[in-house]
Design goal:
The complex is a heterodimer.
Chain A: H1 2-21, H2 24-40, E1 44-45, E2 58-63, H3 66-76, E3 80-81, E4 84-91, E5 103-106, H4 112-122, E6 128-131, E7 143-147, E8 152-157, H5 158-163, E9 167-168, H6 170-175, E10 178-180
Parallel strand pairs in A: 2-4, 2-5, 5-6, 6-7, 8-10
Antiparallel strand pairs in A: 1-9, 3-4, 7-8
Helix pairs in contact in A: 2-3
Chain B: H1 11-66, H2 70-78, E1 86-92, E2 98-103, H3 107-110, E3 121-125, E4 128-137, E5 140-150, H4 153-203, H5 217-304, H6 313-343, E6 351-355, H7 356-373, E7 377-381, E8 388-392, H8 393-409, E9 415-425, E10 428-437, H9 459-466
Parallel strand pairs in B: 7-9
Antiparallel strand pairs in B: 1-2, 1-5, 3-4, 4-5, 6-8, 9-10
Classes of the chains: A alpha/beta, B alpha+beta.
Chain lengths: 184, 467
């Protein structure tokens, strides 16, 4: 496990290195995703038991992309959504998901098996799961980033959101590319 | 009372003008107030409306801005098509770039879009209103909404003014109808009273009465007018009665005057005929008297001329006395006839030019024998230059004869001097004939009576003169 973790870290580092060295569009894409991530929080209603107190922060969990976590930290500094501060939490593979976060972002660099495990674990809990898989949203993913022709878009699965007891505001649905309706 | 501003002759027109002017003034003031109020409210409402609209768009577009959905922002702006007054709209991102635009008229007005987001707030200028609203979510400025709308103040003012005009016209129509009713209610009784008054004046019929139709001041006027008519009627009747009485009295008086006049005319006629009878009598008398007297004088003269035979001294003396008395009697009768003629107005004066010397000499020649028989000297002082006068020859001769005859008659001894001369007094040229004698004279107190009609100087003085 230690090896794998180390490998992931190395991979992450490599990825981040690669991305840092990438063309400017990749950097821009990450910035956009960062902004989207904390903005998603404004359109989500968590169940009451998701927070211990009204002033509890909204925790944004980032899995797989350290650079993105860094940028997100800078972006959310001093920012509040619905009266709650925002906090970034870096998640390694196989981390305990008990009260880990309110928004879970799984980078595409995370191995599908880990990603599957994370999603499976999050299912049924009040966690807004965000993935970025071009092939399509895996089960348990509520929001999935999709590369459009000119800009970053996302699909929403209302069925997954319902399973996690989250309700999404209609404004967000309007902005989404595709919305999978709730299960009948 | 006549107002120079409203030279209206009839109350009907005055009422009408009054109601009309009042209505117009009220409508004007109210309309102006409404107009100003509406213009202000319209601007404020437009600004508020647009601000709300901008806020709604901002709210709807927040997610689009957050998640870079320009299409959604464009769709949101496209809904503005339902608001035709909005000409331009734009959404700017936080960096100031244009995120989405809308132009009512297509590309034509898109050029007017501000390239940078304007300062939040509303601006009204030149029939346009601009509103810009900052989109803020959770303290993050997401962008700016800009709306540019038409503010058709002039059109609005025009349409509002036309509505006001139409409303005012309708109100005027109502007020005109109302004034018609009002003037009918007020003027009809007045016109009726005026008609009665005219009738009274024209026909002098005080028995007509105005009808009292209302209980207001006009009714009071009608009643007062009727009372006045009653009073006039009564007085006219009294006047007529007294005039009738007067006429009756006058007729009576005239009748009596005519009666008296007739009586007087009758007596006058009688008097005239009596006078005529007297004149005829006198004329007849004088003739009757003179005929025997002439015979006496003629035959006495014949005797005295001793034609029938010689007379002794005593006979001759007595005959001369007879002759003198007869002549005196003839003179008296002639005088009497003259007086009668003067009294009857039968003396006609015939003015002609005659020479005074001739008349005086003629009279003196006729009196000379008488004067010589009494032993008196009869002297005449006549100027050589002829004195012509225009007068009645006979009257002048008579006057001179009387005065000279009397002077001789009342002078026992001495002389009688007759003078003739001119005497001019101012611009009047007079002739003076004076008589001077050495007889008894006339007392100064009797001088005034001398030339009065039918007067005689005291008989005593005459008697004395005879002595």
């Amino acid at each position: 496990l230690g090896f794998r973790r180390a490998l992931i870290l190395v991979l992450l580092a490599a990825t981040s290195h690669c991305m840092a060295a990438e063309e400017p569009s990749a950097t821009l894409e990450r910035r956009v995703k960062v902004a989207f991530l904390y903005r998603f929080a404004g359109y989500v209603e968590w169940p009451v038991d998701a927070f211990a107190s009204p002033k509890d922060p909204i925790v944004l969990g980032i899995a797989g992309d350290e650079v993105m976590a860094d940028e997100l930290e800078v972006a959310v500094a001093g920012r509040e959504v619905a009266g709650r501060p925002l906090r970034v939490r870096r998640l390694g593979a196989g981390v305990a998901f008990e009260r880990c976060c309110h928004v879970l972002f799984i980078d595409r660099s995370v191995a599908p098996a880990d990603s599957q495990a994370m999603l499976a674990h999050a299912e049924g809990r009040p966690v807004l799961t965000v993935t970025e898989l071009d092939a399509g949203a895996p089960r348990g993913s509520i929001i999935n980033f999709a590369r459009g022709t000119d800009r970053i878009r996302f699909d929403i699965s209302l069925a997954a959101a319902e399973r996690n007891r989250l309700s999404l505001r209609s404004q967000l649905l309007v902005v989404a590319r595709n919305v999978t309706p709730k299960a009948p | 009372m006549r107002s120079p501003l409203l030279p209206l002759r009839s109350i009907r027109h005055k009422l009408f003008a009054g109601v009309l002017l009042t209505s117009i003034a009220a409508l004007l003031v109210a309309g102006l107030g409404l107009f100003v109020y509406d213009v202000r409210t319209y601007r404020e409402a437009a600004a508020t409306d647009l601000a709300v609209e901008a806020e709604l768009i901002g709210h709807a577009t927040a997610a689009a801005l957050q998640f870079h959905d320009k299409a959604l922002a464009g769709t949101n702006l496209a809904f503005l098509r339902a608001r035709p007054t909005i000409r331009l709209a734009a959404i700017y991102d936080p960096s100031g770039g244009v995120f989405a635009t809308y132009a009512r008229d297509g590309g034509a007005s898109a050029a007017e879009l501000p390239s940078l987001p304007p300062v939040p707030g509303s601006r009204i200028a030149d029939e346009r209103i601009d509103v810009s609203h900052r989109i803020v979510v959770d303290g993050e400025v997401l962008g700016t909404v800009y709306l540019g709308a038409d503010l058709p103040m002039y059109r609005r003012a025009l349409s509002y003014a036309s509505i006001l005009l139409a409303t005012s016209l309708a109100a005027l129509g109502v007020s005109v109808a109302f004034s018609q009713w009002l003037q009918r209610a007020i003027t009809r009784p007045l016109v009726q009273i005026a008609g009665v008054a005219r009738e009274v004046v024209q026909r002098r019929d005080y028995s007509v009465r105005a009808q009292r139709t209302t209980e207001d001041e006009i009714g009071t006027l009608a009643e007062a007018f009727n009372n006045m008519l009653s009073e006039i009627e009564q007085r006219t009747k009294a006047l007529q009665a007294s005039a009738d009485e007067n006429a009756r009295l006058n007729a009576d008086l005239e009748r009596r005057v005519a009666e008296r006049t007739a009586q007087l005319e009758e007596s006058n006629r009688l008097l005239e005929s009596a006078s005529r009878a007297k004149d005829q009598f006198l004329a007849g008398m004088s003739h009757e008297l003179r005929t025997p007297l002439n015979a006496v004088i003629g035959f006495t003269g014949t005797l005295l001329m001793k034609l029938p035979g010689p007379l002794n001294q005593e006979q001759e003396k007595q005959l001369r006395t007879v002759q003198g008395s007869a002549r005196h009697l003839l003179a008296l009768i002639n005088d009497l006839l003259d007086v009668a003629r003067i009294e009857a107005g039968k003396v006609e004066l015939v003015p002609e030019v005659c020479v005074c010397q001739e008349i005086v000499e003629d009279v003196l020649a006729s009196l000379r024998p008488q004067a010589e028989s009494r032993g008196l000297e009869l002297v005449a002082s006549l100027p050589a230059e002829e004195i012509p006068v225009r007068t009645d020859r006979r009257a002048l001769r008579q006057i001179v004869l009387n005065l000279a005859g009397n002077a001789i008659k009342f002078t026992d001894k001495g002389y009688v001097h007759v003078r003739l001369g001119r005497r001019d007094a101012g611009d009047r040229r007079l002739v003076e004939i004076s008589f001077e004698d050495t007889g008894v004279g006339i007392r100064p107190e009797d001088h005034d009576k001398l030339f009065a009609a039918f007067s005689q100087v005291d008989a005593s003085s005459r008697r004395r003169s005879w002595r």
